[in-house]
Amino acid sequence: MRVIPVPTSATTFIFDPLHYLALIEQKINAPRSGGAAGPAGGLPEEFMTLRRLLEARMGKQGKREFVQVLRLMEVFPLDDVAAAARRRHRAAEQSASTP
Predict the structure, then answer these.
(1) Is the pLDDT of residue 14 over 80?
(2) Is the separation of the CB atoms in 40 and 70 below 8 Å?
(3) pLDDT tens across 47-97, in order?
(4) Whose CA, among 3, 67, 83, 84, lies 20 to 30 Å from 49?
């Protein structure tokens, strides 16, 4: 388990949710704590929009696709993944508005 120590207290730890993404991807419908947002809690709004769109369009497979997007943060910085999500959302809006 990946743990991020907090320098202000020797007994306080913050658990990195990215550590769990591979497991969540395999067990996509398993009940888990973390509230309704699940592994996306605390991420920029672009991720919540992408999640809603994927789940509405693809159901269970959309959940898995969303986790795969989150897993990109294992390799790329959060800002880069968020920018890609914004570009994808804008492209989808433009194609929907084009007759």
Answers:
(1) no
(2) yes
(3) 888 888 888 889 888 888 988 888 898 899 989 999 998 888 888 778 777
(4) 3
